[in-house]
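User: Adenosine monophosphate-protein transferase and cysteine protease IbpA, Filibacter tadaridae:
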Amino acid sequence: MFTIIDEKKAQLDAKRPLPKYTIRSLREKLNLEWTYNSNAIEGNTLTINETKVVLEGITVGGKTLREHLEVINHREAISYVEEIVQGNENLSAWQIKNLHRLVLKGIDDEYAGVYRDQQVFISGAVHTPPAPYLIQEQMEHLMTWYQGEAQTLHPIVRGAKLHAIFVGIHPFIDGNGRTSRLLLNLELMKAGYPPMVIKVENRLAYYNALDKVHTAHDYQDFIDLVAVEVEASLDLYLKAIA
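Assistant: Predicted structure for Adenosine monophosphate-protein transferase and cysteine protease IbpA:
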């Protein structure tokens, strides 16, 4: 299934260590696109150029404080993901809460890093997340799966399933989508892949694939969607170092 992707990953690995300044510019490009698209999927109206300006410390007129914080917070969350990767740390519920705390910092501090105590619904989705009293148990099941069966899976499948299961539980009041995409890239980056970007223009296919996971327990469309974007990121890196 991943033959071509595995070959491209092997080509990239064979070129390591990669040129320092090339890596820096690729990282900045992908992190900008990751931040812009992940926020745009959730309704943030900043353009990619406005997102870049906010990351440089400049305020954009006519945009809300929340939209600015979503950009700044996402950058800090990416930095935390990179720290986990560099430290080769095992994923834990504590890390997931820390990631979420960074995503909602200054936006909703009361619920940042705290499992929800209310029922929520996912706009446009058929699937209804579990009741609040089930969240702790379902998150424990997720971590048990992650520490066991998930470790036998291809990193793309593991990352995609981690994202899908997590967002199905929807353990937090807000910020679940951004956190799930951070977790997906965390898994890919730990396995030596560059981060991938789910683009806002693919939002409908993304939501439909997730709904198929949660209603029919069929992960294939979502795994395929992730694989396409992983290959695109690998192609970007390989082109840069050719």
